[in-house]
Design goal:
Blueprint lengths: L5 H5 L11 H40 L12 H4 L5
Length: 82
């Protein structure tokens, strides 16, 4: 068996990829961060709209409440006197 040449193991040195400009990597990372941020904002907006739709459906089921909460009376606030 003949020993493999070093060039065969590594590949042609001209084909090896080097990062010629480190700023390109920074720009790539920045762009990835921008895309992720936009995705998170869109996801939050979708969830907000879904929550509003659930509230609207719930309010439509109970039209007598007029969208306001229950009002407690004075009797519920104080303990009974002996």
């Amino acid at each position: 068996m003949r020993p493999a040449r070093l060039v065969d193991e590594i590949g042609d040195p001209a084909e090896r990829r080097t990062d010629p400009d480190p700023r390109e990597n920074d720009m790539f990372q920045y762009r990835l961060q921008e895309l992720r941020s936009a995705e998170l904002i869109e996801r939050a907006e979708t969830r907000r709209l879904a929550r509003q739709a659930r509230r609207a459906r719930r309010a439509a089921k109970h039209p007598s409440q007029d969208g306001e909460g229950r009002v407690s009376g004075l009797r519920e606030r104080f303990a009974r006197a002996a």
